[in-house]
Amino acid sequence: MQKNLNQWRTFPLEGNHDFGAVINSQDFNSTDPIIPFLANYWKVWLDEAALQEFLVNGFYTQKFSTTDGTVYDKVNVIAINTEACYNANFYLMGNR
């Protein structure tokens, strides 16, 4: 991804069912093993605060910036993993 998108400002985000079936979703009682895996690959695109927020919470916010380094202080990128609140996530429903 980095090789093919190096000319574009990239803000990575998990998609629905990207890493397995719904039943493998985060249960909020333990760390989702995919989070540190993704963080390792995404660290080239995330600033340190966003990376740490992603590692702890599974989501991140970051100021928008361009590839030339211009930062737009009034524009935030908000990346949320909606899989955790997916209404067909039977694992979570059974453990509420």
Top keywords for this entry?
96 residues; alpha+beta; 3 helices; two-stranded antiparallel sheet; elongated; 2 strands; single chain
List the helices and strands and how they pair.
Layout (H helix, E strand, L loop, with lengths): L33 H9 L5 H10 L2 E6 L5 E9 L10 H5 L2
Antiparallel strand pairs: 1-2
Radius of gyration: 15 Å
Strand count, sense and closure of the main sheet? 2 strands, antiparallel
Task: Please tell me the overall pLDDT.
Answer: 78
Question: Helical stretch count?
Answer: 3
What's the SSE pattern?
HHEEH
Summarize the structure.
By secondary structure, this protein is α+β, with helices and mostly antiparallel strands. 25% of the residues lie in helices and 16% in strands. The chain has a domain at 30-94.
Mind explaining what this structure looks like?
- The structure is a single chain.
- With 96 residues, this protein is of the alpha+beta class.
- The chain is 25% helix and 16% strand.
- The protein has three helices and two strands, in the order ααββα.
- The protein has a two-stranded antiparallel sheet with strand order 1-2.
- Strand 1 (60-65) and strand 2 form a beta hairpin.
- It is elongated.
- The model has no long low-confidence stretch (mean pLDDT 78).
